[in-house]
Structures are given as C-alpha cells and as structure tokens.
Design a protein that fits this description.
Helix 4 runs antiparallel to helix 5 and helix 7 packs across helix 9. With 291 residues, the protein is of the alpha+beta class. The protein is 41% helix and 19% strand.
Length: 291
C-alpha cells in the first residue's frame, strides 16, 4: 500500500508531469468527508483534496463544477489541475488560495459576482450530468419547469432517502409529499440560471487580496433564488451583499415567503448527512404549506 507521501508524489506526476518534485505536505483542513493538504512542490504551492470512502467520480464532478463556475463569473474560483483516483483515494488538485482579511468592497463584489453568475442562462433546469452536493448524489435530469425539477430532482430523492435510512417515519413521508401540488405556485417564473448550489459562508474564501473566492460548488441550472435562500440558512451574509446583488438583478417580491421552501433541499441534505436535529425546521415548513 502506498504511503501518503507516495500518493502526493503520484498526484503531482499525474497532474503536472515528471519534473514536478514534492518538497513538503501539510494538513490544512479536515472535515467529515475530506482532507485538505497543502503541497509545496518545485512548481509552487497546490491544494490537494483527498477522500477514500466515496463514489469514484465525486472529485471529478467537483472539478467539472469548478471549471464551469470559473467560466461563468468574474469572481475568483480556484484553477483545477487534475482529478483522479490512486489506490483507495479520490483526489482533486487545485490552485492553493492564500487567505486574508476582507476589503471594504468584499460583500459588494460578492453580490455583483453572484448576480453575474446568475445571468448565465440555459434552456432547461438541470445539467447534462448528475453530480453531488457534499457527498450526496444530486440528480440533474433536465426539465423546462422549475417546480417539476425541484420536486423530482431535489426534494423527492432526499425525502425518500431519509425514509429509507429510518430518519423519518412513513406518515411524515406522506405528509411531505402532500406539499408537492402546492409549491409550484410560489415560484416566480424565471429562466434557468447557473447556480453555485451550496452557497454558504464556508464555501466562500477571502483571498489574500481581500476578495471573495467561491469553492465547493454543487452546480446546476436552477432557480437563482436557491442560492440566495441557502446563503441565509446559517446566519446569512452581510446586508451589503444582498443590496449589491439586487442593484444588478432585483429579486421578485415576497422572497422571504419562498425562502423556507427553497431551503427544504439543503435541510434535507443536512438531515441525511448529520441526523434528525435538522428535522424540526423541515416539519415547520411542511406544516405551514399544508394548512
């Protein structure tokens, strides 16, 4: 079995070629699913993401998402150098982002950049391939109707998974499915917009220049309000971010009323990943919708 230094050297070889030599490696992030390693090499510094207990294509799909994101916004997005599998490890090698403190224009620039991203449109909601949100498979079968896409590609697979994993009882599964005929009428009709898909503060870095940098996308063409709702789920961004966004791409009235519906999806993600502490928030929204 390869030791970790051998894996690092093999990653550098596969992504950058024979002449790249490893100088040092240091752990910079360790989450529930991934390790983040700073590699110092003869060609400079790189960021390596490793995991070993997930689908073989999970970091390939993240690489694809980063590339599409980078093509579609002026915000900083790390460059990718390769993704693959060595032994039991999936890997993704990207640019190493030096972090710092935010500038005065940080939130304004993030709002403008997200609006710019959301002005990238497609004919249908979804994507040409499935991908992942965190470690959960994310279905992206394309649809011309946002309500249908949201129900069949976002909500139903995850509430079904929660039932299968015995996180919810059958009566709540049936209660949840009662909201499906009701929710389409809440959504304003808009073109499918390219969304980050997992937009919370942990997925926005502050670069050494004080600018925002987007990481860890779960990208697809969806309703742009999904990103905005998700951004408010765990505390929200600075008010300047939302003001800046709306100066370019105004939000339709009554967004606050719709926000809880959009956030059923990330809450179902967290329910399936981390357990039933996220269930009460889901139950409250479902109860309001079926009254």
């Amino acid at each position: 079995m390869l030791d970790l230094n051998e894996i690092y050297e093999q990653v550098l070889f596969e992504c950058l070629g024979f002449g790249t030599k490893l100088k040092s490696a240091s752990l910079v992030a360790a989450g529930n699913h991934n390790q983040g390693i700073q590699l110092e090499s003869s060609e400079g510094f790189f960021f390596l993401k490793l995991n070993f207990d997930h689908e073989r294509d999970i970091l390939f799909k993240e690489s694809t998402g980063l590339k599409l994101l980078k093509e579609s916004t002026f915000l900083k997005v790390p460059s990718t150098f390769g993704a693959g599998r060595i032994g039991d490890y999936n890997y993704l090698l990207t640019e190493f982002i030096l972090t710092g403190r935010s500038q005065l224009e940080y939130w304004e620039n993030l709002g403008l950049g997200l609006a710019h991203l959301h002005l990238t449109h497609a004919e249908k909601f979804g994507l040409e391939e499935d991908n992942y949100i965190a470690t959960i498979p994310q279905k992206n079968n394309q649809s011309s109707n946002w309500g249908d896409f949201f129900i069949h590609e976002r909500l139903d697979p995850l509430v079904g998974k929660a039932y299968f994993e015995q996180l919810i009882p059958l009566d709540f599964l049936k209660k949840f499915q009662e909201i499906y005929p009701k929710i389409d009428s809440y959504f304003p009709k808009e073109k499918p917009a390219l969304v980050h898909g997992d937009l919370w503060s942990g997925n926005v870095l502050i670069t050494s220049e004080g600018e925002p940098c987007l990481i860890d996308p779960a990208i697809y063409y969806g309703h742009r309000e999904m990103d905005l709702a998700f951004s408010k789920l765990f505390g929200g961004f600075d008010a300047v971010f939302y003001e800046s966004y709306e100066s370019v791409f105004p939000i339709e009235p009554e967004f606050e009323r719709r926000m809880a519906i959009y956030n059923l999806y990330p809450l179902l993600v967290h329910l399936n990943l981390f357990g039933t502490s996220y269930l009460p928030s889901i139950e409250r929204t479902v109860t309001k919708l079926i009254r």
